[in-house]
């Protein structure tokens, strides 16, 4: 037999569902293919945060006690957290806090609507706790990963030590995850430039894919070898002048 749900609890269900969908939609913009480990961490965060809104809503609809307790838990968190922003948005935060307090009151008022706490409620809450633990472990591991610059330096050093510029291909077009969900490019090009300068090989400079890095490669190799003909490969007049000037200073 279908349970009649009070209008005040239905309002809580709709608000919680909207919040869960909002969090999922907002954070979905932070990852894109090809997926890296950082994307998995963001996905876990989306699932955990959204679940703490959507699952209580489903529990309230079914009259389950886990819905009652989880909704109270989320409201108990949101009310004090929202007040932290009161100095910045006083009217909006005050209005929002009043609505949250009203939802809290509706839950307490309709406590008799919910069934007794049983094994099903325990399993749902236990599953959410496991989800939080999994997210925290994944996030902790993510923080141990090297930043793009650290990773680039590691690969560049390995390429020079082993005498193989192809090791720079590990940088995969210079795209690597940064803490904070940003992407950067150009590290593969810099790695090949570093290798060419280390080897003092102007022919290797030709393999540097990005023009600015290629010009700097000719600049440093030309000065290092004191060879003005290498400077002629630079298609930037300013850096070409620096190359000639550097050779002149090194020769005097």
Characterization of the model:
- It is a single chain.
- With 252 residues, the chain is mainly α.
- It is 71% helix and 2% strand.
- The chain has two domains: 7-144, no CATH class; 148-251, no CATH class.
- Strands 1-2 form a two-stranded antiparallel ribbon.
- Helix 1 (7-27) runs antiparallel to helix 2 (37-62) and helix 6 runs parallel beside helix 7.
- The longest helix is centred in the N-terminal third of the chain and has 26 residues, at 37-62.
- The protein is elongated.
- Residues 173-184 have low confidence and may be disordered.
Question: Topology of this protein?
Answer:
Layout: H1 7-27, H2 37-62, H3 65-83, H4 90-109, H5 119-144, H6 148-162, E1 176-178, E2 182-184, H7 187-199, H8 202-205, H9 211-225, H10 228-231, H11 237-251
Antiparallel strand pairs: 1-2
